[in-house]
Design goal:
213 residues; alpha/beta; Rossmann fold; 6-stranded parallel beta sheet; 4-stranded mixed beta sheet; globular; NagB/RpiA_transferase-like; LUD_dom
Amino acid sequence: MTQAARERILARIRSAVEQTPDVPPPTRDYLTAHTRDDPTQNTERLHRNLTEYRAIVHRATPTRLPTLLAERLAAQGAQSIVVPDGVPDAWFSACAIQRYGDRGPLTPAALDAIDAVITGCALAIAETGTIVLDGGPDQGRRALTLVPDLHICVVRTPAQIVPSVPLALPLLAPDRPLTWISGPSATSDIELDRVEGVHGPRRLEVVLLETEG
């Protein structure tokens, strides 16, 4: 396209829109949440909605967590895991399993050969059953949670649970690589045949870690 042709097109666009009225500012009088911000209710609602999305949900205390992780990895047949640098070593005190850090970093092919990833999260949204990752130290880069077949995510309750999306957004940095997770990765074709694991983990397990806020 020549510069003259470009200018003619832009001139026609300007002429077409110059008489249009200004767009009114959006109204912000909608509800930011549909339920009371109660920590116990938020946890129960998140648990229920995660289950609706076919995630497997567990409850644990910090003392119980290492044993639970070891049990779940064994139950899923995992022989190896990748762990972001910011995840506490104490979580794996009961795990006799090959553990990788993301040094190098690991290539997609190397990640594909690893059975599971265990991470924390940025926050979780009760009303939608959504977990949000922002690439923080206990979550790592996005590829870690997209390539391995099993993702076990630890959510600290009640501190990391918010009631709704409008209340979650101000807590998230817009310049972070946000990943929003609502259940295992899944899609369906035109005949509605569900296929899991197409663009992320085929299996999602969530541990609600019962800590003080």
